[in-house]
Amino acid sequence: LTTQLELILAYSGVISFFNLGAWAGLYTYTPELYPTKLRGTGTGVAASIGRLAGIFAPSITGYLFEVSGGLLLPAFTVFASAHIIASVSTLVLGEETRNRTLEEISM
């Protein structure tokens, strides 16, 4: 394997790890926050947006790779930034659910 390909595989593995962790968080955190009907709709919308991103991500990655002169870091920084923004947003704006009843939380 070339060094470039090894870096692509390594960066992709790291991004995938955090992406799967984000889904785990979505499926464990949101059931406590929203009523069932709203939760189903919201989770469906989030899944749809994720699938759309999966369609466009390879093209965006290729474009960023090309305009950066063959550097991988800018392309992967864009995708890592999305995870960082989502994490910080949840930490800052998220509601604490510990030691609260579901009725109390979802009001």
Polypeptide structure, described:
This protein is mainly α. It has one domain (12-91). The chain contains four helices and no strands. α1 runs parallel beside α3 (73-93). The longest helix is centred in the middle third of the chain and has 32 residues, at 36-67. It is elongated. The mean pLDDT is 84.
> Please, what is the oligomeric state?
single chain
Cα gyration radius (Å):
17 Å
Shape: elongated
Poorly predicted regions are none
Count of domain modules: 1
* Intertermini distance: 54 Å
Strand residues, percent = under 5%
Q: DSSP helix count?
A: 4
Mean pLDDT level: 84
Number of strands: 0
Labels describing this entry:
107 residues, mainly alpha, 4 helices, 82% helix
In a nutshell, what does this entry contain?
With 107 residues, the protein is mostly helical. The protein contains 4 helices and no strands.
SSE map:
Blueprint: H1 3-33, H2 36-67, H3 73-93, H4 102-105
Helix pairs in contact: 1-3
